[in-house]
Structures are given as structure tokens and as C-alpha cells.
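It would be a great kindness if you could assist me with a short task in structural biology. The matter concerns a single protein, recorded as an amino acid sequence and a row of C-alpha cells. Kindly check, if you would, that the fold set down in the C-alpha cells agrees with what the sequence suggests. Thank you for your consideration; the sequence and its C-alpha cells are set out here:
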Amino acid sequence: MRILDRFFKDANKKEAISWAFYDFANSSYTLLILSFVFPIYFKEVITGVEKGDFYWGLLVSVSILMGGLLAPIIGAIADYDSRKKIKFITFAVVSMIGATFLFFTGSDKLLFTSLIFLTSNIAFELAQTLYDSFLARVSTKETVGRISGMAWGLGYIGGLVAMLALKPLYENGYAGDFEFGYKLVFPLTALFFFLFSLPSFILIKEKSENRNTEPFSALVKHGVKSVIGTIKNLKQHKTIAWFLVGFYFMNDALVTIFAFTPIYARTTFGMEFKEILTLLLIAQIIAFPAATIFGLLSDKKGSKKILLFTIIVWAIIVALLSVATTKIMFYILALSTAFVIGSSQAIARSWLSKLVPDEKRFEFFGFNGFASKIAATTGPVLFGAVSVATGNQRLAMAALIPFFVIAFIIFARIKEERVESLPQISNM
């Protein structure tokens, strides 16, 4: 207990842990629906191998773009009507229902599959944005990094548990009689997502605030008006604006890597399902302590220093992945990503939490969602387009390096703590 008391300090342990369990829960969706089982099924069964990269990249990009456009408006409405938790739960449940309906997809159902996935992933992105916004409510300034890192680390444990629990259903692929079991992974992933989200649904507390009970149309109008007003007055929030630009470039590359690594392993290196599964399982084990440790380091050394370090590591790994020629080399590099795979985003989340003003917290996290989602629309499409145009996934992987370079330059020039403006980079 003393170790836990020292870790959480003045933060509410029960509330922080229940909040973190949503990362544990939603990692099942991130891993099995967005990164591994469903993407391979989509490419090889629903669209066909030749154009699979392009269609998958396009679908991921469109869903993230739409989620990004809606995120600031939903965030502004949540700040205004003080009904943040119910919106978070609603979007999460819609995402789970969408994942369940993926069971009914197949080789002749591209349009149906696309609509179901778009609905599910848009809701997932909006729920994630609202969830991230609660970080400041469940932590303190001294613990925000470690709690964010702990949650991200728990996410990898959740992904590991989900992968192992459902492994008998997908390990033999989708051919013939195995297809039913393979597709059963999708609704069971949704069930896992729901069950382990319950602690956050039930135990996260909202502040007692005056709630505006205006009609839905009036709330939307207010949300749009607030977002437009914030954009017009960005000069008052230059630090946050530049942070979002830096996050744009970093997250663009990361989302693309997450979406295409299993496909890259299978297409470029000819890896089998079991080999990819082994790689992902080992990565999940490494990523849990890594994210927690980097979170602690960000509280002690500062978010900026640790985030810049992880970006350098990412750029090096991606450069080497683009020239790797053997499975062993790919394994080493892919496992190396486990040390920074969650740390970068967890630290960025905690750093932003320190920068945003309380009265616009959910709206600015909505803008963060917007920046990351808009960014993620270009990376997957770029990767898919380069891969299809050249027939070479290595070139597509190398095209991601400039995103890390630009992100590093921008983050390096941002102040660590909240400031009114950022004149140092106003002439960029």
C-alpha cells in the first residue's frame, strides 16, 4: 500500500485506476479491430490483396477525419452542458455495437462493411477524446504523467489478455470452416471492451456543476459557435496551437504504423499469422512497464524532454524498418517499438493536460482529437498510395520519417508549462 500511496500521492487511487481501466478495455478494439485481425480479413477477403492497402488506408483515414471534425464540437458541448460522462459512455457503447456487427461482413459486402466500420471507429475516436479529457480530473499536476503512463501500460496488458483469450478463434486464419470462428472475434472483442469499461463508466466522477438542459439543436449551435470563437482567438493560446500542430505530425506517423505493421509484416516479410501474433504478444508485455516508467520519468524530468527522446527513437526505428531485409531484423525493430509505442502518446496526453485552461478543457481536448485525427487521415492514405503506386511497402514506410522530424522541431520550441503565448515560434 505504501508503494501505491507514493505512486498516486494526492490523487484518488480508486478513481484513477477505474479511469485507467478504460485503456485496458479499449485496447482490445485497437489491437484486434484496428491493427491485427480485422485489417487482415478486410484486405484479403473483403477487398482483395491488390487494392487492400489503399482501401484500408482510405477507410481508416475517412473515419478518423470525421471523428476529428466532430471532436471539438462535442468537446465544446460537453464543457457547456456539463454532461461529459454520459457522452463518453454513449460513444463508447456505439463503438462496441459497431464492432459486434462486423461479424456480418464478408467478401461481397464492401459497402456494408465500410459503413459499419466508419460508424464504429468514429464513435471510438470521440469516446477516446472525451476519456482523455478526464485525465486532469483523476490526477494532480505531480501525478499526471505517471497516471497517464499507467493507463497506457494497462492498455497493453488488456490487449495481451484479449489476444490470448481469443487466440483459438483466429490463430488458424479465416479459410474454410475457420471463417465463422475468425469473425466471432469481432463481437467477442466488443464484449471484452464493454465488460472492462464498466469501472470507468461507473466510478469516474463528474464535478457538481450547473447543467444546461437546452434542446439538442441549441447545444450543437453553441458547440459550433464556441469552436469558431476559439479558432478566431488562437493568438491567446499559441502554445496549445503549436502543440496541436506538433501532435498532428507525430500522431500521423504513429497511427499509420499501428494500422499497417501487421500488413507490412505479412506482405513484405511473408510472416504467418502465428509469427505476427507472437510478435504482438511480446510487444504488449514490454510496452506495459515501459509506458509506466516513461510516465514516471516525465513527472520527474519533464514531459518535453521525454517526449523528444521517444520521437528520436521512433525516427530511427522507422528508418531501419524501411531497409530491413530479414525477419530477425524486423522482429528486433518491431519489438523495439514496444519501448516507446505507448510512451509517446501517454506523455503527450499528460503534457497537454498541463497546458489547457480548465474552462475549455474538453473543447481543447476535442481540438487535440481533431489535430490527431486530421493528421491520421494523411498518413494511412500516403502509405497506401505509395505502396500501391510503387509496389514497394519499404518506400511507404520511409515516407513517414519526415513526420517525426517536423514533430521534433515543433515540440522542441514549445514551453514546458502553460503560458499565454509563444512568441518564439510565431514567425514559423
